[in-house]
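Curious: why these numbers?
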Amino acid sequence: VQLQASGGGLVQTGDSLRLSCAASGRRFSNNGMGWFRQAPGEEREFVAAITWGNGRTSYADSVKARFTISRDNSNNMLYLQMNSLKPEDTAVYYCAASRGAIPSRQVSDYTYWGQGTLVTVSS
């Protein structure tokens, strides 16, 4: 399984970005898929997750109402729409896939990881 994240960049406070994650190597049916982020010197933290099959979602409180996770089953793509970006959203963002069927918030529940894409939000 390979996950390829893209879409990061340098934006200003209040701007929007959409991250994409292309999954290859298998067809996901009911797996949990997630976005995590890691700022310099910090631990990797949960951002959002979705169950591939039924679309059930979960969000970190810090991004709720600003970020939206979605998936395109037919194209095996995962997305993270990020609006109203803040400087504290600056981090490397990773997409991940789990073998379980829940939108887990735990890093340890995810088996497959993309390489990360850098998001920098200037003030």
Notes: The mean pLDDT is 94. DSSP finds no helices and eleven strands in the chain. The longest strand covers residues 17-24. The CA atoms of residues 65 and 74 lie 26 Å apart.
